[in-house]
Fold this sequence. Notes:
Blueprint: E1 4-7, H1 22-33, E2 37-41, H2 46-50, E3 59-62, E4 67-70, E5 73-77, E6 87-91, H3 97-102, E7 110-114, H4 117-129, E8 136-140, H5 143-146, E9 153-158, H6 175-181, H7 188-198, E10 199-209, H8 214-223, E11 226-235, E12 244-251, E13 258-259, E14 263-264, H9 274-279
Parallel strand pairs: 1-2, 2-3, 6-7, 6-9, 7-8, 9-10, 11-13, 11-14
Antiparallel strand pairs: 3-4, 4-5, 10-12, 11-12
Helix pairs in contact: 7-8
Amino acid sequence: MSKIVFLDVDGTLINYEAKLPASAAKAVDQARANGHKVYICTGCSKAEILQRNLCDLDGMIGGNGAYVEDNGHVVMHQGLSKEDVKNIVDFGTNNAAIPLLLSKRTPKKIIGIEIQDEAVDLARRNVEMNDLNDQIEVVHGDIKDVIKELPKAQLIVCNPPFFKVGENSNLNDNEYLTIARHEIKIDLEGIISAAAYLLDNKGRFAIVHRPDRMIDILNIMQKYDIEPKRIRFVYPKMNRDSHVLLVEGMYKGKKGLKIEPPLYAHNDDGSYSNEVRRMFGEKIDE
């Protein structure tokens, strides 16, 4: 009797270096030769799967069920309508770098919140120079106050101040840099509680931080009903300690945490890795 086999991708079909072991390829080929159907079932999009060097398969279920393909034919591709998709909000947008990057990936409305006058002025000039005033709005104010005036968001992103303020804090003489780097105007719990307030049901919260704050982040997220769903460690290059942590959670989401493959920012010669270059929109031929 023929069977249908569903396989996860990262950490199952391929290893955490994004390489397909010969043993996995052989097992898939043998299963198909014996008359079985082999599909991948993944949260990755079709575009992300194309970046992975996989063996021949019978199809895929991707995008957490939003995309289904069988023998090269698209059976279903169900994206979100404009009515279903709500605002993206960037907490602590600074010079609007994240909204500018996100604008290359989505036509959705993006709101950046920033408390510092100097950063707000720079962010608005950056948005105007890129002719994105219709898509990106920079709001000047305290996150805790601004969220009360905003509609619910489907996605909140945040690159917050990394450092706690204490007796041993090495504060910069420059107030602008001190506020950007240290939890002076808002702390980690303030950010996460604000995200929980603003997120729509099943909305997502994505934060970049230091690995040594991981336990704090996960505990506080769960305290405010944001269930951690994905974690990824970023390394400056191979054989170095991780220096950046990426965490994504879902408001009122079910339990289930995935550790993503490591992200290496640079090659040994100091140049950006191909994955980082792709993130910036480059087309890489490998």
